[in-house]
Write a structure and sequence with these properties.
Order of helices and strands: HHHHH
CATH class: Mainly Alpha
Helix content: 40-55%
Number of helices: 5
Number of strands: 0
CATH topology: Cytochrome Bc1 Complex, Chain D, domain 2
Structural class: mainly alpha
Shape: globular
Radius of gyration: 12 Å
Length: about 90
């Protein structure tokens, strides 16, 4: 039996993504200039970026906004969000 493609839970990630929708769109496709699309991004990339925002090691762009958004996320939250957004098609 092969390992699952994603370790997080897509449904839990979808539920948690409602707070992300204002800037990144619920479907992960941003309609706001300066805010990136999250749909279809690599799961590891998304996890790393959310962790970098959480620990404030990522700078530039809208990082300051993301510091507040990511500060309360647990590792499990990050895994679920990254799994959800990476599962979407761009």
């Amino acid at each position: 039996m092969s390992a699952p493609l994603f370790a997080g839970d897509v449904d839990i990630g979808r539920a948690g993504a409602t707070v992300c929708a204002g800037c990144h769109g619920m479907d992960g496709k941003s309609t706001t200039p300066g805010f990136p699309n999250l749909a279809g991004q690599d799961v590891t990339y998304l996890k790393n970026q959310l962790m970098n925002f959480r620990n404030k090691s990522r700078t530039g762009g809208q990082s300051v906004i993301m510091y507040g958004m990511a500060s309360g996320l647990t590792d499990t939250d990050i895994e679920n969000l990254a799994t959800y957004f990476s599962s979407l098609k761009l």
